[in-house]
Known about the structure:
Layout: E1 4-12, H1 18-25, E2 32-39, E3 43-44, E4 47-56, H2 60-75, E5 83-90, E6 92-95, E7 99-107, H3 110-127, E8 130-136, E9 141-144, H4 149-152
Parallel strand pairs: 1-5
Antiparallel strand pairs: 2-7, 3-4, 4-6, 4-8, 5-7, 8-9
Helix pairs in contact: 2-3
Amino acid sequence: MPDFDVVFAELSEAPISVDLAIAAVEGDEAGAVASFSGVVRNHDGGKAVDRLSYTAHPTARQILAGVVAELVTEHSGEAQQPVRIWAAHRVGMLNVGDPALVCAVSAAHRGQAFAVCSELVDRIKFRVPIWKEQFLSNGAVEWIGAEAAEKTG
């Protein structure tokens, strides 16, 4: 039996749910499920935020899949029981409170579930080329992460 199972790793234009992610990775052999839900907040850098939009580079889906595969390869052989991974990042318009990034990892023990989930979130945020356009309450618009586009393109 493989020690890692990537249940889902995708960009989504539809709303994503931490409950769906948790349900997808649960199993009788999993003693722990660690999850992360990064939600749109109403502020950034002291500025009020009304909503935002995420735009992904055309290669973002492949890079996300590669990030997950790399994580699996690096941790392969560490688990006695299956470790299941679920990850999704929204693209498009989101409102305050909407989940933007959801990850869930199940494992036999909490330490591994926490470690893999945390590492997964960090790698997605750092490496997947997704940019955020923030619509501020004062009418201004700001791009966050757009400087990375020059490195990707």
